[in-house]
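Quarterly update, task 2.4: S-adenosyl-L-homocysteine-bound model.
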Amino acid sequence: MAVNLLDFDLEGLTAFCEGLGEKRFRAVQLYRWIHQKGESDFGRMSDLAKSLRDKLAGVAEVRALPLMSEHRSADGTVKWLFDVGGGNAVEAVFIPEDDRGTLCVSSQAGCAVGCRFCSTGHQGFSRNLGSGEIVAQLWFAEHRLRQRLALPAGVRAIDNVVMMGMGEPLQNYAALVPALRTMLSDHAYGLSRRRVTVSTSGVVPMIDRLREDCPVALAVSLHAPNDALRDSLVPLNRKYPLQELLAACQRYLAAAPRDFITFEYCMLDGVNDTPELAHELVRLVQGQAAASRALGRISCKLNLIPFNPFTASGLKRSPRERVLAFAQVLQDAGIVTTIRKTRGDDIDAACGQLAGEVQDRTNARERLAARRDVIPIATVGGVS
Ligand code: SAH
Ligand code: SF4
């Protein structure tokens, strides 16, 4: 099979071009064509020598992920479902906001961590995505949106990427890092280090490696202020309990002292949403709990996520007033706290929801086509 050039960061592409007997700067030109212009046809890369274009056409390709469906929410959120083979699908979600455009990207088909409140976790693990498959989500979304919105040359549609789609990115580390480097490269998407976020359920050794290899913004899915409760929600906690996780967070911050960690906390009715737990959370991040005393206060923000329910979980979303009361406790303690807006509710744009349906069904395409919120790909018009 032809080599997929989306798999390479600039260093990898340079090595590949050198292997073809080409000069290093050719790799920069090629990388720019692919990522800045969204070009996949070597024949149209006009400033590359004809001999190189022919050579590339023989051995390489820019392999996009096959698109299965596109869903557009009334609030402007767009969700794409991609076929990754073997009956599996992954999703990417574009979330437009006043001041930025965010793309939520998947790193795996399914997930092995198995968090109780996560539909991706309930599916189990199918496989890791390759670097090219991670980058392909951004490549596709960026260029599709630019075209549709008729953005002038040099204007980006996406300036913020969060690795918060399906999968645990730090359990697919080898593929993740080249993909992150392409997101950050000035010759590709040119995103700032603070506008690329890796979200993890807490794979401690890989948090340390990320700090050394590619220190982008870090979000840690906390969901509980003590080990007993977190063990029951995030099974990985039994392997890397809170004390170790928070120590890794402090090491991450030590490398970039002006940064902060975003702690995510999914609000589950009657499970982790009481005022007592909010106070316990304050003590934890302020270095006053047993698990954090040796570590001191952690520079962090809290992001409360209203739970997106699915039947198999047996869990419910916390009522709004409980979420507000929880947030108040944190805020009163001086912790910057946000409550995530639920976007794209009408198209199931939350973590793993739709792809979960697809995996279980043989005639996925027919069922998708029958859904009211699905726009057949052939008739998609402009982003509203
Ligand atoms: N595996 C990584 C990243 C993907 S999940 C992680 O766990 O951090 C991205 C975020 O969505 C996590 O914070 C996760 O806890 C949250 N999430 C998962 N299922 C959810 C659900 N049903 N409702 C709300 N948030 C959910
Ligand atoms: Fe995996 Fe994250 Fe879902 Fe947990 S919340 S099962 S780590 S994708």
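Highlight for this quarter: The first helix runs from residue 10 to 19.
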